[in-house]
Give the backbone structure.
Amino acid sequence: MNQFSGKTVVVSGGGAEGIGFGIARAMGKQGMNVVLGDIDNKQLDIARTKLENDGIEVLTVQMDVTQLAQWQSLADKAITRFGQIHMLVNNAGVGSIPGTVEQTDDKDWRWVLDVNLMGVIYGTQTMVPLMKQHDEQGWVINVASMAGMIGVPTAGAYTATKVAVVGMSESWYVELKPHNIQVSVLCPAFVKTRINLSGRNKPDEIKSHREKGGDASLLSAAKHMQKVIDNGLSPELVGERVVEAVGNKELYIFTHPNYRKVVNKRFQAIDDAFARAEQSELLSSVLDEDVALYAK
């Protein structure tokens, strides 16, 4: 029996495809009970059938991750069905509309922030207290992106949320460790998902003028992105990688080692900036100040 067997995992954005479903299926194959939350009830029905055919115990709940009350309702249903919650996978996310600083309006920003950032916050605020109620191992897995490690031009809103998810995960990793709750953050590059079609679930009242007007540049960008995504990793492989990494207690979970050189360029640039700061006479007095809080 492995460490996951008999435990319960909650996965947001766990419809019948994509990273969420890939993780849910992988964890289910490890013997976990699976609770799927998704805004798309049709996709939930398909997901439930697939998992049940695999012999996995599953509960599906239609919910909007931007609504805290719906998180609580999902938690109540999960506990009624399975008794306890041991793992949370904050997966639900949307892609931002490609655009420059000037083109990305308030509606674009608000929608991406609400789903990608507040959805993670609400999920964690709801599930962590429930994990603390029992003495068993707990896990929080936040799905960020390679965009959380390197900025993506014309995707400012999406990048901002993924950088935030990485930072929150680093913070919670230290904060929750004494409570026997392990935190990991998944930072994949391209995976075969429908994130480029996430606007299908966007309410009409918050769609921007560019979306409503059928902007030619958006259509062109969508076609290009679809080709890139179609060549990405399978969600099933990503799910298995998550099982492997969580079992190894990894904080950062990477699925695309070919991006290592790109990220290292950023790290080198940061290290070079620190070197320049050390050489500044203006800052000589702060060289020996205590940084214990951040060194953890």
Remarks:
- Residues 8-257 form a domain with the Rossmann fold fold (CATH 3.40.50.720).
- The mean pLDDT is 90.
